[in-house]
UniProtKB/TrEMBL annotation:
<feature type="signal peptide">
    <location>
        <begin position="1"/>
        <end position="18"/>
    </location>
</feature>
<dbReference type="Pfam" id="PF01557">
    <property type="entry name" value="FAA_hydrolase"/>
</dbReference>
<dbReference type="InterPro" id="IPR036663">
    <property type="entry name" value="Fumarylacetoacetase_C_sf"/>
</dbReference>
<dbReference type="GO" id="GO:0006107">
    <property type="term" value="P:oxaloacetate metabolic process"/>
</dbReference>
<dbReference type="GO" id="GO:0050163">
    <property type="term" value="F:oxaloacetate tautomerase activity"/>
</dbReference>
<dbReference type="GO" id="GO:0046872">
    <property type="term" value="F:metal ion binding"/>
</dbReference>
<protein>
    <recommendedName>
        <fullName>Fumarylacetoacetase-like C-terminal domain-containing protein</fullName>
    </recommendedName>
</protein>
<keyword id="KW-0732">Signal</keyword>
<comment type="similarity">
    <text>Belongs to the FAH family.</text>
</comment>
<keyword id="KW-0479">Metal-binding</keyword>
<feature type="domain" description="Fumarylacetoacetase-like C-terminal">
    <location>
        <begin position="86"/>
        <end position="300"/>
    </location>
</feature>
<dbReference type="InterPro" id="IPR011234">
    <property type="entry name" value="Fumarylacetoacetase-like_C"/>
</dbReference>
Amino acid sequence: MRLSHTLLLLFFPFLVNAQRFVRFISTDNRVYNGDAILPAGTTDAAKSRAARVITGDILGDYKITSQVKSIRKLLAPLPNERVRTVRCVGINYVSHSEETGADVPEWPILFYKPFTALNTPSDPIPITEGYRTQGNFTSKMDYETELVIVIKKTAFNISEDEALDHVLGYSVGHDVSHRGWQVDRGGQPRPQYSMGKGADGWAPWGPAIVSTSIIPDPQTLRLWTKVNGVTQQNETTANMIFGVKQLVAFFSMGITLLPGDVIFTGTPSGVNLGKANPDWLKDGDVVEVGLENVGTCTNVLKYV
Ligand SMILES: *[C@@H]1O[C@H](CO)[C@@H](O)[C@H](O)[C@H]1NC(C)=O
Ligand SMILES: *[C@@H]1O[C@H](CO)[C@@H](O)[C@H](O)[C@H]1NC(C)=O
Ligand SMILES: *[C@@H]1O[C@H](CO)[C@@H](O)[C@H](O)[C@H]1NC(C)=O
């Protein structure tokens, strides 16, 4: 008793950095920022039922309080409008370039999604009538699991060595993709990334932002996708062509990265686009995207 008390006193002053930033609705129906408390035996923040409340701004000065609130529903870790730019990387795993017949890129392939594409770790992914049927065009919905980088500090013209100082942490993201618009109507070899990937709700992310103190090396994490419970993607971030440091430094060469900006870093193999007999996603399909030590987002496709 006395020993643990002493340990607490000793360690308390060092507990200044949150480990798993979450934003959630509590049982009092109010929205809080918090540091997720993990249940025993899991590192999936989506399973957290409570969090220590954080006051202030997680992108600036904040304080982790001793107040614990229960989690009724996890939201995206930042409100959509705090994320001023959603950067996404095209082909960034050799396995994905091989399955899609794309060249291994010499430089990172960058495209953007509007922040209206961001979605929570659990809400439906809406597929509008236009995206399903426009011009009698068959819907070809696909999944992509990705490691997401969250920028903490403004970055301009920084080196790879400086890159991680500008990162708050990592989330898992789902780069929802309509291959019909992205590829078939893209005027190959120029894909229409924005038409194919930018619709409202087509970027679920979360369930937490796991800090760089928990994940000092982001190139060692397993990431996976399950569709209706069946594993479809399962690879490691060690296989990224351009790693986190390279991407952050490269994108900063002439564009300012702002606090709260996120970077979806590309998907490994296993997507429908790479399959001989694709099983395109349809209304009611449940997609889980997962990242080791971070957690899962589980969203259902919904025709609206
Ligand atoms: C779609 O197909 C239906 C049935 O073949 C046809 O009646 C309709 O005119 C088509 N619509 C468009 C926009 O091509
Ligand atoms: C970018 O960084 C390099 C190396 O630190 C420096 O020489 C150069 O002046 C910087 N350019 C701009 C536009 O800040
Ligand atoms: C992914 O593969 C690893 C190594 O083979 C295995 O341990 C793990 O269970 C797989 N994950 C999923 C979600 O299938």
